[in-house]
Q: What sequence folds into this?
């Protein structure tokens, strides 16, 4: 079987995608990775589609040029919603987003194509209609309802992940979902940090529904693509993991334990400029 | 008395500075204005100082070049905290920030130089130490305590300005202030929208303290500079007001009633590129 030692590239608008990187590193412990957080231009969720496409191409080309990646994971729901086609046309390597795996995981969780499915995401992801579209493309015939939940991002970054405030915020967002939803997709990479409190609020408002996190599903999808295309790395007990940011390594360092599951110092995070070639 | 028909320029990282523009238009109804919201790069509060200076110079030069402004109001606490000196060195016109007026209004509110004063702001404003420094420069000898309150921004933008969630969030931030503070400065232009609920929470936690909003004080300062330098516009019942954004006129239009006090349609908001000359 062929091997490919090049790293998997992962990018997000900021630190949120570290939750996807964490799931990838857990599923594929031999693979080197390189992560780019475009922290100088975060957040993407409020930007126009044209701007998001431009930023996504900047980030992707930077990872190809600087790190010679073999596969790109778009660990950002906003970018996956509006820029996946542009990235696939532009890049010579496979591109995996987070929306298709999240939609597939939701359908697997409900087990029926006509079940009601809810999605919580940024304003941009909701506006794009990407989750309902991805669900319909996989045969979903039930009602898909997407609700913007922008307060979850600062709650996650502040570390306010339990107690009254996040519970009340979650309850208020979940009120907007139909009573018969059976699964709620966390459609933003920040939200897994709030999964326990969202599950608590969901048990009150929608007792039949379960929370679906697409990060693990994304790791499954990446594994499948690597295997199909003969891109798996050789067995390695110490693969290299690099972290790039476009601003403020200190902020990523501060949030690394909560989002990546391990402490990283600012000195281990490389501050770079992205290629403004798009 | 000489007159100057050129507009007053106002910029902010996004829509928050519209609360300052609103105070200016109320205090100076004859003055034409031009507002630039750098919505493509918002928020500045989490960016490094070097990045904020670069963005501020881009915005200021754009207003000078495109709109021939006679005075610049930096309606952004983050920029006022770190970039005012760079702007004053770079521009041939007077520059007024929001921190000095806010500090002066707080001292006027407490009436004593040794009173405890609290400040709520973004992480960047708090980290800069700009409010304690501005207070000390005006003779304040008491304790000044600044607390980062990042959740207030999405609460204001979501329109969640009353009820349990903002009250609990405010109470939690105010807990971090010493018991003897006598004034709390709203050190971010988004926070005036939450002033009623912050005042309610403050009455519980710090019954002797009052809320200070620097926007009105900024308008007083601008009036003084215009008068001193002979820059007042001639009397005009219909001065021109222009709004620029660097991304998503729709978002500013949606928030215009809450932040500016009147409805503006997206068609009335000009989408521009800023001068990348810094």
A:
């Amino acid at each position: 079987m062929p091997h490919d030692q090049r790293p998997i590239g992962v990018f997000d608008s900021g630190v949120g995608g570290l939750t996807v990187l964490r799931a990838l590193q857990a599923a594929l412990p031999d693979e080197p990775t390189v992560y780019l957080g475009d922290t100088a231009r975060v957040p993407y969720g409020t930007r126009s589609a044209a701007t998001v496409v431009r930023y996504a191409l900047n980030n992707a080309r930077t990872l190809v040029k600087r790190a010679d990646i073999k596969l790109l994971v778009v660990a950002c729901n906003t970018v996956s919603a509006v820029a996946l086609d542009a990235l696939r046309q532009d890049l010579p390597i496979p591109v995996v987003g987070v929306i298709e795996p999240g939609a597939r995981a939701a359908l697997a969780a409900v087990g029926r194509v006509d079940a009601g499915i809810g999605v919580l995401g940024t304003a941009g992801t909701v506006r794009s209609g990407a989750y309902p579209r991805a669900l319909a493309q996989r045969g979903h015939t039930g009602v898909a309802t997407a609700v913007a939940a922008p307060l979850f991002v600062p709650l996650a970054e502040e570390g306010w992940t339990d107690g009254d405030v996040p519970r009340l915020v979650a309850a208020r967002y979940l009120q907007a979902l139909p009573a018969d939803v059976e699964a709620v997709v966390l459609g933003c990479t920040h939200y897994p940090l709030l999964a326990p409190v969202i599950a608590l609020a969901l048990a009150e408002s929608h007792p039949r529904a379960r929370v679906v996190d697409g990060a693990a599903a994304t790791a499954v999808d990446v594994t499948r693509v690597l295997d199909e295309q003969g891109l798996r790395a050789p067995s390695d007990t110490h693969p290299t993991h690099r972290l790039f940011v476009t601003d403020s390594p200190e902020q990523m360092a501060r949030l690394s334990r909560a989002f990546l599951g391990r402490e990283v110092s600012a000195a281990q995070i490389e501050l770079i400029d992205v290629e403004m070639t798009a």
User: Anything to note?
Assistant: The longest strand of chain B covers residues 181-187. The interface with chain A takes residues 39-43, 46-48, 51, 150-151, 153-155, 157-158, 160, 164-165, 168-169, 172, 247-248, 251 of chain B (CB under 8 Å).
